[in-house]
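User: Sequence in, structure out. Go.
Assistant: Echoing your sequence, followed by the structure tokens.
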Amino acid sequence: MGSGSGSGGPLRVATWSGPYTERFRNKIKKPYEEETGNKIECIPGYSEILSKIQSAPEDNPPYDLTVADDYFYFQGKQSGLFAEVNHDNIPNYEDVFPVLKEIRADGHKYGVPVEGNPNAIAYSEDLESPPEKFAHFTDSSRDLKISLSDGFYIYPLQTGAIVADDLEGTGELYGEEYHDAPFDAISQMNITKWFTSGAQIWELFRNDIINTAQYYWATAAYQSRTNDSLNLNVVVPEVTGGYFDDYCLVRGSDKQEQAEEFLNFLLRADIQTSWSETSWEIKSNKNAEYPDFVAETIPTTNEELKGLQLPDWEYLSDYNSDFSERMKTLKSNQTGN
């Protein structure tokens, strides 16, 4: 057996790198260890998480559990990198919002939904006509200087689909006859720069290169509330894109019993409430509570969560190359990026 043997060693959990891991250690790892006496090893990672699982021997994985957003969940499932969990051993799964139980085509066979981030609009406070929804991105009278992500195509295209408004939500992405609409909508926006990182986007605001951006709610809110030099406001539109994270059991782990116990702990309302004090994403437990300013901004009911448009990679994966090439051309034509 590898270091993940059920007879010894900590439960190894892959988490997103950066501040996320520190918050996870303080709000999840510490109380779990104090309450149960079991040990957790948080292993920060990002794009390399799945490749590390794939390259490891199947009976000696590098993690027992891993965080997985919508795309990672799809990729991991397709590549056979996860193992099935038994939701009967995770009773707090009953308290997950019904709409979130439906976001995976397989019913979260390999894990449980834990938290997610809606896309938000960050904008300079001195704008005379600030954008309150993504449709305002094509309103030239608002004098917006916009930045969208230069990374993966999905988040700009979600915004483009919402603006196009030919179908409900981001439906344009899931009907080939409507695929032009999101690109056409983006082409009508005054995009002055495509940002490549979170650090860059805040510099763009400081230097007045942009006054509006689409970005993850929790990160943008943190910058708005802690960095006065940015002079930012942040809103989450009623209909928006975003992502949601599962925590999944990794194939070959022999710690399934402890992993499921830990997943149940992650889903507890009191734990998610405590976590929300420093991690302002949407929590999956319908009874979780939030700081007032968070609860006033993000979707916190099952009905409100229906406006959160999560990507369907079962469909989108067939169009990855096409969408990526079209986005590359669009960015080049708009800003020379």
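User: And one key feature?
Assistant: DSSP finds 14 helices and eleven strands in the chain.
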